[in-house]
Design goal:
The complex is a heterodimer. Chain A is of the alpha+beta class. Chain A has three helices and seven strands. The N and C termini of chain A lie far apart (about 40 Å). Classes of the chains: A alpha+beta, B alpha/beta. Bound molecules: iron/sulfur cluster.
Chain lengths: ~140, ~550
């Protein structure tokens, strides 16, 4: 059975709307949808840009587990979320205590994550860490 | 953008400045084609004979790095020839005298040596622009990626103000920028000086409102650092930790060597992303997130439209949506944070942002797209800004702004005789981990990418089409492949920035615009060297590429 999910292309600010067509939980194609900016049209990126979700590994692999490196010259090892979050938060708190909140820099992401994730990121920076050191690569 | 993407179709004149729609935004390019079919005129300013330049009525082949001088010359012509809208300027703008004081020194004849554009073409362009009942300015990275970027953007707005091209449909000025959600990231306050909804961190009332909503005693009032300042701040010992969310500065930022030094200089680097990338190789901890297609939320289009995107497939592996990871981090740091879904987050933000209050999930579902400002629940959204020609200033007037041209920092010389400018290419996207992993798109172009070079220059340096070559600047040296291209100008070579082996940002300069802090990607001095043993070069390329891919694959197992 084919299913269609209406979504927005993640590859440029034109914000074309499209339907992702799935069969048995895997995407098989994309179709242009009647969005305000694109009115059913899509370019190549909109039509084929979903292929990375099938983890082609052509360039680099998807991350599947939190990875931790206990020192800069050791290898990455897979760890549980508890350990990863515990490690990252403890180290951040230490640095905040020692050097102040403004010694920490955070970025947002102007790509796939979306507005809500970015809102929460800046809240983490401002309300939890206590710094306005948050920026993204709009300039690039 | 002051106006909407669909309005491009119904304007009378499209004025394209340093923007290549065909390569950056194909759907915008189609709107331009349709406008042309309906009779719109088109003027293009670009050093290269781009696709748009090829089909335009008038193409101004500007010299690289001369933007401000040309924009001032445009203003000069509009005023000197009396082409501007006097009535509009009197009622809706301010600063005319100081403006004229500056631009009066930029007669197109006087600055021909700087701009490289014949004066009569500059005059003709402005006569066309002023004569059009409605004119739409589109600009892109040919403007924003220079050391003098913000000035030029204000200068272009000045042209629209002088001619009264604001405050109604089918006019205005639009930056059409690179990544899909740059607009959204700004909208929700991922900027060092504003909270969500463009509310300044320096305003005590705004800080109090957010502090109360977020349940904290106070919020920091000092604006934060900008990303492009990072290398230099690490060097000074001011930054110790870096939490990098969905970006790849070790590939996309200028002067990669200094970026790598900065990453090494941090005591802690946290990377949260979907793929292994060059930056993650410097991390202490990597947090794996779900990707587009595996989670939901809202993006903003370049023309301020909020649109919902949805989950189509289940994520594979032990990964989480970004916002859930942030909640875990906040909670572990002593600030319990919990949301059940993205709608809850959106509703919290809406309630704090008068500009977005009426854009609910339900209404986005119903309308498909809602352009902010949308202040209340039955507001239809705002396709164009500045209705009634009221601008976002206390007195409602638009400012006419001009300033002197500043030459690019690093000029070509005997040792590095060519200018390198970085450009974008159809099919690939920024740091490429998403598109590079799409089979169809990957086959469009492969490592190490290309160096576009004019035929005469190629002959001068002994480069054959498709041959591998070395290109170097004072900062680095990379391998790339020659693409002899008659549409590019002599003396300047062009590279796209997504390649791993042919990484042009090994060469670029960290010199930034004093306000926007955008690095000068579009201008640095380089030299090229032919490689005699092409068989060796091809082998070397293959080995390096395989090595790099192995290195990235290793940690993931
Ligand atoms: S389909 Fe093409 S033009 Fe439309 S948003 Fe995607 S990348 Fe941009």
């Amino acid at each position: 059975m084919e299913k269609k999910v209406r979504t927005v292309c993640p590859y440029c600010g034109a914000g074309c709307q499209l339907d992702l067509v799935t069969v048995n939980g895997a995407i098989v194609r994309a179709e242009g949808a009647p969005g305000r900016t694109n009115e059913n049209e899509l370019c190549l990126k909109g039509l084929y840009g979903w292929e990375f979700l099938n983890d082609t590994k052509r360039l680099s692999p998807r991350l599947k587990k939190p990875l931790l490196r206990r020192s800069r010259d050791s290898q990455f090892e897979e760890v549980s979320w508890d350990e990863a979050i515990g490690f990252a938060s403890r180290r951040l708190m230490d640095i905040k205590r020692k050097h102040g909140p403004d010694s920490i820099m955070l970025t947002g992401s102007a790509r796939g994550p979306g507005n809500e994730a970015n809102y929460v990121m800046q809240k983490l920076a401002r309300a939890v860490i206590g710094t306005n050191n948050i920026d993204h690569c709009a300039r690039i | 953008m002051s106006n909407s993407i669909p309005e491009i179709e119904d304007t009378d004149l499209i004025f394209v400045f340093g923007y290549n729609a065909a390569d950056s935004h194909p759907i915008v390019a189609r709107r331009i084609v349709r406008a042309r079919e309906k009779g719109a005129k088109m003027v293009v300013v670009d050093p290269r004979k781009t696709e748009s330049a090829r089909v335009s009525d008038l193409w101004l082949p500007i010299r690289n790095g001369a933007n401000m001088a040309l924009v001032n010359a445009f203003a000069h012509v509009l005023i000197e020839e009396g082409l501007y809208n006097r009535e509009y300027v009197e009622s809706h703008t301010e600063g005319f005298d100081a403006y004229w004081e500056t631009v009066s020194r930029y007669a197109p004849e006087e600055v021909e040596d700087i701009t490289g554009v014949p004066a009569d073409q500059v005059r003709q362009a402005m006569r066309m622009y002023a004569a059009a009942p409605n004119a739409f300015i589109l600009y892109g990275m040919g403007v924003t990626q220079y050391g003098q970027a913000v000035d030029v953007v204000k200068g272009l707005s000045g042209l629209a103000l002088l001619t009264g091209n604001f405050g109604r449909p089918n006019v205005g000025i639009g930056p059409v920028r690179g990544q899909n959600n740059v607009q959204g990231t700004c909208d929700v306050g991922v900027l060092p000086n504003v909270f969500p909804g463009y509310q300044p961190v320096s305003d005590p009332a705004v800080r109090e409102k957010f502090a109360k909503a977020w349940g904290v005693d106070s919020l920091p009032e000092k604006p934060g650092y900008m990303l492009t300042e990072v290398p230099h701040l690490v060097h000074e010992g001011k930054l110790k930790a870096y939490y990098i969310f969905g970006e790849d500065p070790a590939q996309t930022d200028a002067d990669l060597n200094s970026v790598r030094e900065a990453l090494k200089g941090m005591e802690l680097v946290i990377v949260q992303d979907i793929f292994m990338n060059k930056t993650a190789m410097f991390a202490d901890i990597i947090l794996p997130a779900t990707a587009w297609g595996e989670h939901e939320g809202v993006y903003s289009t370049a023309d301020r439209g909020f649109q919902r995107f949805r989950k189509a497939v289940e994520p594979k592996g032990d990964i989480k949506p970004d916002w859930e990871i942030f909640c875990l981090m906040a909670t572990a740091m002593g600030y319990p944070m919990h949301y059940s879904n993205t709608k809850e987050i959106w509703d919290e933000m809406r309630a704090l942002c008068p500009l977005y209050f009426g854009a609910t999930y339900e209404r986005m579902e119903e309308l498909g797209s809602i352009q902010w400002p949308c202040p209340d629940l039955d507001h239809p959204g705002t396709p164009y800004l500045y209705a009634g020609n009221t601008f976002n200033r206390p007195n409602g007037k638009g400012v006419l702004f001009a300033t002197d041209w500043r030459p690019p920092l690093e000029r070509p010389d005997e040792e590095y005789p060519l200018v390198l400018s970085t450009v974008r290419e159809v099919g690939h996207y920024s740091c490429r981990t998403m598109t590079g992993n799409c089979t169809t798109l990957q086959s469009l172009a492969d490592e190490p990418g290309f160096l576009q070079i004019n035929r005469a220059d190629a002959r001068k340096y002994g480069l054959k089409d498709k041959a591998l070559l070395w290109i170097s600047s004072r900062r680095g040296k990379v391998l790339t492949r020659a693409q002899i291209n008659d549409r590019t100008n002599q003396g300047t070579v062009y590279m796209t920035y997504q390649w791993w082996i042919g990484a042009c940002n090994e060469l670029t300069l960290e010199h930034v615009d004093p306000i926007s802090k955008t690095p000068e990607f579009k201008y640095c001095a380089v030299k090229v060297e032919a490689i005699a043993d092409q068989a060796w070069a091809e082998r070397y390329l293959e080995e390096e590429y395989a090595k790099l891919r192995r290195k990235l694959a290793e940690p993931v197992g």
